[in-house]
Records
---
Amino acid sequence: MNNEAVKVDEAAYGRPVPKIEPEAAPYWESLRQHQMKVQRCDACQEWMFPPTTLCPFCYSEELSWHEVSGRGSVWACVTMHRAYLPAYQDDVPYNVSIVELEEGPRVWSNVVGVAPSDIQVGMPVKVRYDDVTDGLTLARFVEEQSG
Amino acid sequence: MSGNKQCAIVGIGETPVGKLHGVSTQALHLQASARAIADAGFEHTQIDGLLTNQPIHDPMRSYSVVLAQALGLHVTYMTDLALGGATPVAMAQQAAMAINAGLCESVLCVHARNQATKKELPNRGGDIRDGNEDYDEPYGFLGAVANHALMASRHMAQYGTTTEHLGAIAVAAREHARLTPGATMQKPMTIEDHQNSRFIVEPLRLLDCSLVSDGGAAFVVTSAERAKDLRQTPVYIKGMGQHHPHANTAQARELSELGGRISSEQAYRMAGVKPGDIDFAEIYDCFTITTLITLEDYGFAPKGEGGPWVAEGHIRPGGSLPVNTHGGLLSHAHMEGMTHVTEAVRQLRWDAGEGRQVDGARLGIVSGHGGAGSMHTTMILER
């Protein structure tokens, strides 16, 4: 994976897109491949997000990328009723959640396919990859039916 | 205080607040500064330390040196501090440290902003990024309201806190503002008004959010020894604390408890007092949920029981712990915490006036809170 692989087109998405620092490129490339990878410290096995170059737990610089299951649960959730950028005007009201992946790390995302008012802390969810432009895939989540 | 020298706040200055047309951010800094220096009974040539915070609307490199020149100060210690709403309390702490280190004796701390009329002023641009934008903005997660709505989401899910509980905090702030000359919001507010206000980022409503304001405030810190023969009753800095538990909401260990617990424990220990000794509290209230979490973290109510506790009326005027006696960021003005400090000083000088003065107040606690619940500062002040 290299930085060249990830070029995102802000105009095509019409909303903010990540400006990808070198250490973050493998994350965004993994989403593009529809297999979420998250960094884990080789020395102490702690997971970390967002991507970094130094383990904040043990200060090892030996970090590697591991595919995660894409399953998790809603840790906190809000409904955006106001569009803070004109680009989101047609989207409100929409959910933003912090999803806790079953491996431990937490990510910001949207839980989709459910009315925002029906989304609750603790709800089990699984990833859905949205290719929003040729170069950018976002990891959104849908409710996972239990049992 | 555990340093060699105790320090005191000996001067306060405030500009009017609200919508101030045709006034630059620097002009507000100068007005607040001149008033604080005069209030202390100092000549500006007696100020030898300066602490500033980058004005949000008009950021510039090394603001303290720009302001030092504009104020005609020749200081032996200065710096900009950048802890968001935790900055004003951090300024008092930094001033005490600089005085104790022997770098200066009398420090001016000042901050002002033009958030209400920024569109009428030259657009200087230059937003400083927060470091998470690559990971939250593509999902439509932006702004301080959203970060604090996440805190409310956690608190409600864990403890059953309700939007009506948050409403009690907004109503108490409004009651205090109505006793404060010059406060922005003077219209009475009820829980029903709060419940009828629209969601901005659910579960937070419009009336859970702080104001958008212009204005500025300043205060002067000096050594207790120097404070003895000045104009005003000295207000001593008895305890200080800080704790900064995370940078962003997704990586926070928890959002229903923030830095206030460890920060206040440090301050209580330094001051040799406990929560029950405190007569009033000026709690940083960018949102109602911030007040609720901080009151619990400070030990005024057990964790998770803050909602029912505020609904009992403790924080209202005349309550067992009046909170934000000027109306706070919610109903007085959003001065990023500066007026929480100046109001605490006013209360401890017994200068707050009929109805608003906390009778016989001797000990007050002031909180600062910045970022995504990321940064917390505490100070305990004594008359």
Note: Chain B has a mean pLDDT of 96.
---
Amino acid sequence: MTKIDKELVDKIAHLARLEFENEAKDEIVKEMNNMLSFVETLNEIDTTGIEPLIYMSDEVNVMREDEISNQVTHKEALKNAPDHDSDYFRVPKFIDKKN
Amino acid sequence: MKSIPQIQKELQEKKTTVTEIVHHFLSEIETNKHLNIFVEVFSDDAKTKALEIQEKVNLGKAGKLAGIVIGIKDNICYKNHHVSASSKILENFESLYSSTVVERLLSEDAIIIGRLNCDEFAMGSSNETSVFGAVKNPINPEYVPGGSSGGSAAAVAAGLCHAALGTDTGGSIRQPASFTGTVGLKPTYGRVSRHGIIAYASSFDQVGPITNSVVDAALILEIIAGKDEFDSTASERKVVNYSKELNFSSQTKIAVLKECIESEGLNAGVKNSFLEKVQELKSKGHEVEIIDFPFLEYLVPCYYVLTTAEASSNLSRYDGIHFGYRSKNAFDLESTYKKSRTEGFGKEVKRRIMLGTFVLSAGYYDAYYAKAQKVRRVLRNKLDETFKNYQFILIPTTPNSSFKIGQKNSDPIEMYLEDIFTVLANLAGNPAISVPLGKNGDLPFGIQIMAKNFDEQNLLSFSNTFF
């Protein structure tokens, strides 16, 4: 059985772009271990020779004409941004920050 | 509560007006504010619309839903209106377009009265993970309304709108319908477009109605269902006028899953009512057989591996840059992502993103994610086989009636098991409905009927005989 430790939580958290510190980290380690032992029961089912089920829909190749249709204007695209100027999304400065 | 056809008859006969209907609901919503059902009420909008639609009624040009007031779950987009998935990360977000389901309701002259509280990103079974706080069950405010479409079910149960839209990824329409004594329909995967629905797990999510009656559910489904150029998983199959053919007079074969009714967690009251119903169906000439289903304990684990994986991918779009919440503590690009997401998402959502990221990560993918996808096929094969011999599967919607607010918050897995009878329909894609079955004291619980893929017509007609 896979065991989740703090180191693995740090790695997964980085992939998910999340942070867990102190008690939050202890808690997520515990909860992920509980969840894993819960989902590992799936190994009791024999799936030899079974193909994974990936697509739920039996629709095939819904086609459309390749035409340009502009659904969102520049202004609309920026409307919900937490920070922007007249043309661009703004983010905190990061270019000259390398050590 | 009157059905949609009854209300429209009254409108035709000038016994009421659209404005009167809207004002009635606005005042009911105000009176029931303490239940925390609505996140936002579109009062001005609704009043303006009411005048326009009354005009159409007078001219005899009104759509199929004229005078009908509908609430939408807070994960369904409506152009120029806020939508937040009841999450801090989408606070102040305003949708640039309407979901296909909202477009279709509006084009038939429905009035969208407001957005309804739900579990954050539809992740929960009690409506307690919402950033706006828990919704209270109108039947007893100390109890949960179920989730994640808890606000939608509570709004219909409390008489705050004629009908509501919810979404169902693992039972989020049917479980709250069971807990509030309402009708909740999850259509076949692909029957209703997901365009404009804030995604949780895209191979599971479906939109559906929560209503007071089967006829209302049928009416709403026939309007929202059907192909959509914005969602290639929406089926091209023709949509039937479900509400026109709601008679089910033939005798049929029904399967009851043995492991569900023998399950240890099944409440005695639910079990008794269920078995009485089975007897009643037999006495009406239906053939009801109890069949083996040796997969019950694997359903929720399979569901959690796959939905958390899909969620971790879907929710990666919340980056603190393009829209939504940005942390004040962000100082560079990486901290913009990490701090915005860490502060913006609630606990349950982060838990699921972490598990989902883990099962998709290198070294674990085959053991968890691919394994669960294989189990999913085993489950679907089993259901396909069952539906060769039986027209319907009948099981309780929930193992019990509602529980108290706060009662199941210490152990996430205990909460996940709330969906043990409902996740099957999402894993296999089949349509399923919950209709009221009985009560424990004053707390209701439902019975669930599943049918073959895209056989909503028979599903609705048959469940209509349960009333």
Note: The CA atoms of residues 168 and 206 of chain B lie 5 Å apart.
